[in-house]
Amino acid sequence: MVAGLLLAAGAGRRMGMPKALVDDWLVRSIEVLREGGCEDVLVVLGAAAEEARARLPEGQRVVVADDWDDGMGASLRVGLAALGPGVEVAVVHLVDLPDVGADVVARVVAAGSAGGLARAAYAGVPGHPVLIGRDHWAGVLETAVGDQGARSYLKSHDVRLVECGDLAGGNDVDRR
Q1: Do 8 and 26 touch, CB atoms closer than 8 A?
Q2: Which of 54, 77, 112, 129 has the fewest beta carbons closer than 10 A?
Q3: Per the omega criterion (within 30 degrees of 0), is the bond before 98 cis?
C-alpha cells in the first residue's frame, strides 16, 4: 500500500501562523496526495493542532507530534511510526507547497518502488514529495532530527530524482 504522509505541524513563524491554517492548504494537500495515487493519507499536526483538526474532513487520519517544535524531523518520525504495518511506501509531502499538484505526486509514485527512494526535482533541484520505501524507514527514523527531516539519509543513499519542473515550481511558501 502507498500512503501519503502530510507534514503540517510547524508554527509557520515566517508566515505569522501555522501553515496548516493558511487558506485551504491543508485540505488541498490531502486531496493532492489521494488524487496522486496514495491509498491512504496520514496528517501530522503540531502547532494549533486542534484548530487545524477542525478543518479536516470527517474521518481523516491524524497524529499529533507533541515535539513538533523540534523541527520537521520530529514530525517525520511520528508520522512514519504511525503509518502501520500494511504500508509499504510513504509519500512525504509538505503542507506549504500549494503549487504542487496531484500530477507531481503521481509522477513520483510511478517512478518509485516499495524498496526504493524517489523524490521530485524542480529544474534539477531536489524537493518534495519524497517517496520512501519501508526498507528505508528505520534509517530515516535514526537520522531525522531538527529541520533536516530525511535530508542526511537521502544524501547518503541512491535516490531517483523525478523531474517535475514542467508541472510545478516546488517552492515552499513562507510569506503571504
Answers
A1: yes
A2: 54
A3: no
